[in-house]
Design goal:
2,3-Dihydroxybiphenyl 1,2-Dioxygenase, domain 1, 18% helix, 118 residues, alpha/beta, 2 helices, four-stranded mixed sheet
Length: 118
C-alpha cells in the first residue's frame, strides 16, 4: 500500500488570526472554507486550522522541534517576509551540511519551520 498525507490540522484559539498568518505572511493558497474551517493547499496536501487550544508535548525530546516544516525555494526571501510582518525568529537562521532553516511560532503558538535544502 502506498500512502500520502491528505491533510494536516493545526489548532488555534483565534482561527481568523491564524488563517491570516498562513495566507498573508507565509503566502499559502487559501481554499474555499469547509464548514467555516480555513483550508490551505500545500502542494496537494490540505492544511486546515481548527478552533481549539494547541497543546505542546510534555517532556518532549528534543525540546525544540517544529510541529510542521515547510520546504521553501528561497529561505532568505522568506526571512525578509517574516521580518516585514514582525515575526520573531528566536534562533535565527540555522544550518547544517544539507539545509538551512528558521523556526518561529505562528499566532496560536505552534512552532513552525521553513527549510531550504541544497
Amino acid at each position: 500500500m502506498s500512502a500520502n498525507f491528505a491533510f494536516i490540522a493545526l489548532w488555534a484559539e483565534d482561527v481568523p488570526a491564524c488563517a491570516h498568518f498562513y495566507r498573508d505572511v507565509l503566502d499559502l493558497a487559501l481554499l474555499p472554507h469547509h464548514g467555516g474551517r480555513p483550508h490551505f493547499d500545500v502542494d496537494g496536501v490540505y492544511l486546515t486550522i481548527l478552533k481549539g487550544a494547541p497543546t505542546p508535548a510534555q517532556n518532549a525530546e528534543p525540546k525544540r522541534f517544529p510541529l510542521i516544516a515547510f520546504s521553501v525555494d528561497d529561505l532568505d526571501e522568506m526571512v525578509i517576509r517574516l521580518e516585514k510582518h514582525n515575526v520573531k525568529m528566536p534562533w535565527g537562521v540555522e544550518s547544517d551540511a544539507v539545509s538551512r532553516w528558521v523556526m518561529f511560532h505562528d499566532p496560536a503558538g505552534n512552532l513552525i519551520e521553513l527549510v531550504q535544502f541544497g
